[in-house]
TrEMBL record, chain A:
It comes from the Eukaryota. The keyword Metal-binding does not apply. One of its GO terms (cellular component) is checkpoint clamp complex. Gene3D superfamilies: 3.70.10.10. This is Cell cycle checkpoint protein RAD1. The keyword Nucleus applies. It is found in: Nucleus. Keywords: DNA damage, DNA repair, Nucleus. InterPro entries: Cell_cycle_checkpoint_Rad1 (IPR003011), DNA_clamp_sf (IPR046938), Rad1_Rec1_Rad17 (IPR003021).
Automatic annotation (TrEMBL), chain B:
Coiled coil: none annotated. It comes from Papilio xuthus. InterPro entries: DNA_clamp_sf (IPR046938), Rad9/Ddc1 (IPR007268). One of its GO terms (cellular component) is checkpoint clamp complex. This is Cell cycle checkpoint control protein RAD9A. It comes from the Eukaryota. Component of the 9-1-1 cell-cycle checkpoint response complex that plays a major role in DNA repair. The 9-1-1 complex is recruited to DNA lesion upon damage by the RAD17-replication factor C (RFC) clamp loader complex. Acts then as a sliding clamp platform on DNA for several proteins involved in long-patch base excision repair (LP-BER). The gene is LOC106117656. Signal peptide: none annotated. Belongs to the rad9 family. SUPFAM superfamilies: DNA clamp (SSF55979). Keywords: DNA damage, Exonuclease, Hydrolase, Nuclease, Nucleus, Phosphoprotein.
């Protein structure tokens, strides 16, 4: 896209995660405007190529993609070592249809803006042994409560909208949603890098989580997670 | 039962739960008129722990607020796993938690922990009650002949010298010193193990009464757990014991708010291992003296860190790890004068000038490839076998 680079992954048609890097994060960014530039590559291979000098090493990167069917070319140069360069070529595939979890018929029923580090601390404290997370949202106190069920025990975290980790809260009607805790854990890594998180709940229960990553130089990157709820049987 | 625990004490309670979790799988809670008792017992029933929190540990305490006519006070049993889940990271708890409310709802079969945290967040854990009975161990502590009070630091330092594989420790109480050593099973090949023995003189302890010389063996895991607990709270440990076969009791208390009893079963130390220990230490050939950095510290009242580590290689080419914490006040301005008389006829080190050389590499290698120097060694037996191929073919 002309606006920036977007990477999307899916798991089991239940979770879709994307990372969006706006064009102004790159020193140079050229994309043909008349066609959709979209292709599929293995994320494991891409991650391996990007970390080829070790994850601690800061490298500069050039990426090239010619046209459909041609490989993605990566040129990496570590900043600390001169005259060392890697040239990676990742073959690309035609993309499968991406899951469209953004349902235009379903309205947004609740929106929650939280501070990411505090939210991460809450999630990290959840019991590891249970697998379902229940989320109760209501316009009345306590506005948000997170319930997990263990072997015999029940744990409950209440978060009123007055809490200073809640930047904004809007919810018209009480609702209860259940998600796989395993899906929730997937975004914890991204949460650790973020400063702010927006949770949007649509009327069909799909949770859209938007994370804002802020770098020192004020440039921003975003990631999005769509998580499908568990339905009552 | 209903009580409020103020923020700093939540950490203490968390530490307690973690210490108790090293003992048993179930946690018994009993509420009395003026205190709350937490107990646990391990499955083998060889270790028992009880921690009593007095009324003033809590900012609000009502032992029987739902006023059933039960005079004993409410009690319950919960699984240790649930308790651990409730107190996940005691180290950070005091920073996050402002106060904790504990409620025992016997009608609902729930023990409720409600944490009021920073950011106005409330975490509530509803823990199921497994049973409403408690156990009580019978042990004597005040009338026993041997009573030692020690700062936890001395014992932790002594224990840190042991191998992580050592699962039992023998405490031998003599009239003027105690010996701590790892317990060695009869069936283990003696050439494959490291023996550790630590001698601590009676002067190192805050109080020392040994009326009946004895040796008791108990498990290391629980001992370490209670040391960690004492360390976290910075409290001294009282050790009270009788003789082999009778339980040893460790008491940790701060006088006002809490008192913890850890009771461990003891077993008889193995007679043969014990004999060989003394025998071997008298046959010491070499020793290496390591001066501790603490020599520069003034000869203060506090326990000396000065350690003589004599690493000895005895005739069986068998490592014997011996650490002695001496009682002599060492004149620190002049290292040359320091005289250490060690116990067990080990070695007399007259002064520091005479630091014996470390074992030469020849001896080390000799003991490493000892088999090659044996008269029965047949070089032909290894000729055809390439044990380690050339690493580089060129």
């Amino acid at each position: 896209m002309t606006e920036g680079l977007k990477l999307t992954v899916e798991e089991g048609k239940c979770v879709q995660a994307s990372a969006y890097v706006p064009a102004d994060n790159f020193t140079e960014y050229h994309v043909r405007e008349d066609v959709d530039v979209m292709f599929k590559i293995s994320i494991a291979v891409l991650a391996e190529c990007l970390n080829i000098f070790g994850s601690a090493e800061e490298s500069s990167l050039k990426m090239y993609y010619r046209c459909e069917g041609s490989p993605l070319l990566l040129v990496l140069q570590p900043q600390s070592v001169h005259n060392v360069m890697t040239d990676c070529e990742i073959s690309t595939q035609t993309p499968d249809s991406l899951l469209d979890l953004r349902d235009s018929d379903a309205d947004e029923v609740a929106k929650l803006v939280l501070k990411a580090p505090a939210f991460l601390a809450l999630l990290a404290d959840l019991e590891r042994s249970c697998d379902v997370l229940e989320l109760n949202l209501s316009p009345e106190h306590p506005n948000v409560s997170i319930v997990t069920y263990g072997m015999q025990d029940r744990s409950c975290i209440d978060m009123p909208k007055s809490s200073d980790m809640v930047s904004s809260f809007s919810c018209e009607q009480a609702l209860t949603l259940r998600y796989q805790l395993h899906h929730i854990r997937l975004f914890m890594k991204a949460l650790a890098l973020s400063s702010k998180v927006v949770l949007r709940f649509s009327s069909n229960g799909v949770l859209l989580l938007q994370l804002k990553l802020e770098k020192e130089d004020q440039r921003q990157m975003f990631s999005e997670f769509y998580i499908v709820p568990l339905l009552d049987d | 039962m209903k009580c409020y625990v103020p923020g700093p004490n939540v950490k203490v309670l968390g530490r307690t739960i973690h210490a108790l979790a090293r003992f048993g799988d179930e946690l018994y809670l009993e509420s009395l008129v003026d205190c709350v008792r937490l107990r646990t017992l391990n499955t083998a029933e060889s270790a028992y722990a009880m921690v009593k929190f007095n009324k003033n540990f809590f900012s609000y305490f009502n032992y029987n607020y739902n006023s059933n006519n039960d005079n004993d006070g409410p009690k319950c049993k919960i699984s240790m796993k649930s308790a651990l889940n409730t107190f996940k990271s005691p180290a950070h708890m005091d920073k996050q938690v402002e106060n904790l409310e504990i409620k025992l709802e016997l009608d609902q079969c729930k023990l409720i922990f409600q944490f009021k945290c920073k950011h106005g967040i409330i975490k509530t854990h509803y823990v199921s009650i497994l049973d409403s009975k408690v156990t009580q161990a019978v042990y004597t502590k005040d009338l026993v002949p041997n009573r030692i009070t020690s700062s936890q630091r001395i014992l932790s330092e002594a224990i840190s010298n042991f191998q992580s594989s050592d699962d039992q420790v023998t405490l031998e109480a003599l009239s003027h010193s105690i010996l701590l050593r790892n317990y060695i099973d009869d069936n283990i090949d003696l050439s494959k193990i490291i023996r550790t023995q630590i001698n601590i003189k009676s002067e190192e302890f805050d109080s020392y009464t040994v009326d009946e010389e004895t040796a008791v063996t108990f498990t290391m895991k629980e001992f370490k757990a209670l040391l960690t607990f004492a360390e976290a709270l910075g409290l001294p440990i009282q050790i009270q014991f009788e003789t082999t076969g009778k339980p040893i009791v460790f008491i940790i208390h701060n006088g006002t708010t809490l008192e913890a009893h850890f009771v461990l079963a003891t077993t008889k130390p193995d007679v043969t291992t014990q004999a060989s220990t003394t025998q071997k230490s008298s046959r010491v050939e070499r020793n290496k003296r390591k001066d501790s950095s603490n020599l520069t510290e003034s000869a203060s009242k506090k326990p000396h860190l000065e350690e003589d580590i004599s690493k000895c290689l005895d005739e069986d080419s068998h490592l014997f790890n011996f650490v002695d914490i001496p009682n002599e006040e060492i004149p620190t301005n002049n290292c040359d004068n320091s005289v250490n008389v060690e116990n067990n006829n080990l070695v007399d080190i007259k002064d520091c000038d005479n630091i014996p050389a470390s074992p030469t590499s020849k001896t080390m290698i000799k003991s490493l490839f000892k088999k090659c120097f044996e008269s029965t060694f047949d070089p032909r037996s290894t000729q055809d076998v390439v044990l380690a191929g050339n690493s580089d073919s060129e």
